[in-house]
Design goal:
Number of helices: 6
Shape: globular
CATH topology: Rossmann fold
Number of domains: 1
Structural class: alpha/beta
Number of strands: 5
Order of helices and strands: EHEHEHEHEHH
Largest sheet: 5 strands, parallel
Length: 162
């Protein structure tokens, strides 16, 4: 069985993430969405909340599961017996960071491949950071995230101290 890991902070998961995920699900027998704890990024949602939002959006993908991970991605991938890591590339600006990360991961585990997947061009400008900025100021994010994610963002910003 061919298995890949799709890692990310997913704070929040967007339609761009889901597009990459659906493409990976066609290429692999099983995909694990790996929700990174990553407290250094100052996420809006806790890891458990992000996992719940991811799980709510992957229900129609039978060969996809999700879990939280911390530490080195290559160690997580090895523990999950994954063959590859999937990374989305929205634009050329993503490439340098992703390329360096792929080389480091290859150095740490030469057996683990990194595969870059480009989302549909309609998602090339969508990032979790931009979506959070729009949501924070009350903008409509329904074109960028699933309904349950938009509702969670609205609730999070409504309860946040001003």
């Amino acid at each position: 069985m061919r298995h890949c890991i799709y890692p990310g902070t997913f704070d929040p998961i967007t339609y761009g993430h889901l597009d990459v995920l659906k493409r990976a699900a066609k290429l692999f027998d099983h995909v694990t969405v790996a929700v990174a704890e990553n407290p250094g990024k100052g996420p809006l949602f806790t890891p458990a909340q992000r996992l719940a939002l991811v799980q709510a959006t992957i229900q129609k993908l039978p060969n996809v599961t999700a879990m939280i991970f911390g530490g080195l991605l290559v160690e997580f991938a090895h523990a999950q017996r994954a063959d590859a890591i999937i990374r989305g590339l929205r634009a050329l600006s993503d490439f340098e960071f992703e390329f360096n990360m792929a080389l480091m991961n290859r150095h740490l585990d030469p057996r683990l491949e990194t595969i870059f997947v480009m989302p549909n061009e309609q998602f090339s400008y969508t990032s979790s950071t931009l979506v959070k900025q729009v949501a924070k100021y009350g903008g409509n994010v329904s074109h960028f995230v699933p309904r349950e994610v938009a509702e969670a963002m609205k609730a999070a910003y409504a309860s946040a101290p001003s």
